[in-house]
Amino acid sequence: MPQVRPMRADARRNYERLLEVAAEAFAEHGENASLDDIAKRAGVGSGTLYRHFPTRQALLEAAYVDRIEAMAARADEFAAQLPPGAALVEWLGAVCAGAIQVRGLKALLGSAVTDGGSVADTACGTHMKDAARRLVEAAQREGSLRGDVEPVEVLRLAHGVASASELADGQGRQIRRYLSLLMDGLRPGGQA
Amino acid sequence: MPQVRPMRADARRNYERLLEVAAEAFAEHGENASLDDIAKRAGVGSGTLYRHFPTRQALLEAAYVDRIEAMAARADEFAAQLPPGAALVEWLGAVCAGAIQVRGLKALLGSAVTDGGSVADTACGTHMKDAARRLVEAAQREGSLRGDVEPVEVLRLAHGVASASELADGQGRQIRRYLSLLMDGLRPGGQA
DNA sequence: ACCTGAACACCGTTCAAGT
DNA sequence: ACCTGAACACCGTTCAAGT
């Protein structure tokens, strides 16, 4: 693993400034925020943005990778405090809430669980899938989750729940309701 | 209800040509297909497109309103052939499949079940909600669907299932699986 | 009454010229 | 080695001029 040469001081400054501004812009305007505008607000030429982040996806991921890591870390906090099934539900609720509040995050989470998505596995995808696997397997061992669903499927369905909640009121007020409908099923007789 | 004066012959030709081309373009490129390109391919000036369809949403809805009506009509066909619960599931599966195959349709269906969405209730929204209500209420009377879910919620959750299926493989191969996970729940012990 | 297409503003992307 | 910003292509939207 060869060390990456440290960036030149001005390059590093630009890089970090771009990330800050991009995180704001994506949160406010969604995944399609203007790249030109981001470059301008960061005080750099548009070419500099493309040098550091060749695609919109690369910038989106770089801007939110720390938030994704924080989300993945919360999985273990819930696991330490609650029984496995409840921990999974609480965590999925938090993931949905984040996906709705921070507008660009939903698209990033979506691409993280897309099969055959772009360039192999992204860092964000790996973090989320690892966290989901720990909670899912624990819940399955406990017997509170069906044995025939995969962690990535649970993440995809949670993404669907976030979409449905967004349609309901533009915010996240229905997340818990829709998540529990998913857990217990639409047919009568499920667990309350 | 005052009769709308019939359009001038050339206006009507343009209008219909625009609808044809738009349906193709949205199906191929999704909801963000270039309006300029649609006008060009229809052989009209861009101003003509805006005259007939002041917003992208208006064009999208006009281009697909017949497909939406056909979808709504299928609800009654399923209801005539199957018990209520099965009819609902089959219909939702067909809706999801359509939403994935015809790219612009998913966005339209989404906005049709969005609360507080744009201009009051759209024609598409009304058709879909009416059809859903008939199936949902029948299934609830039969006892195969929880009594505490509303038709529009079922449509939103189906939209979420379509999203999740799209993430899974870009096509619709997981629709039936995800739909039945939604019906029966992720906890063990649901109906097979 | 309706259509056209130029005009304007905006955005993504590349690349020659700079330091 | 890195940055800048002009240049190009493209798109959405409006509106004066046409028929």
What would you say this structure looks like, in words?
The structure is a homodimer of 192-residue chains. With 192 residues, chain A is mainly α. Chain A has 9 helices and no strands. Chain A has helices at residues 9-29, 35-42, 46-52, 56-81, 84-101, 103-112, 123-142, 151-169, 175-184. Chain A is elongated. In chain A, 45% of the residues are buried. The model of chain A has no long low-confidence stretch (mean pLDDT 93). The interface between A and B is large, with 37 and 38 residues. Chain A binds a DNA duplex (19 and 19 nucleotides) through residues 7-8, 10-11, 14, 34-37, 44-48, 50-51, 56.
Q: Secondary structure elements and their pairing?
A:
Two copies of one chain form a homodimer.
Chain A: H1 9-29, H2 35-42, H3 46-52, H4 56-81, H5 84-101, H6 103-112, H7 123-142, H8 151-169, H9 175-184
Helix pairs in contact in A: 1-2, 1-4, 4-5, 4-7, 5-6, 5-7, 5-8, 5-9, 6-7, 7-8, 8-9
Chain A binds a DNA duplex (19 and 19 nucleotides) through α1, α2 and α3.
Features:
elongated, 192 residues, 0% strand, mainly alpha, homodimer, 9 helices, DNA-binding
Please outline what is shown here.
Chains A, B: InterPro entries: Homeodomain-like_sf (IPR009057), HTH-type_TetR-like_transc_reg (IPR050109), HTH_TetR (IPR001647), Tet_transcr_reg_TetR-rel_C_sf (IPR036271), TetR_SbtR-like_C (IPR049445). Chain A is mainly alpha-helical. Chain A is built from nine helices and no strands.
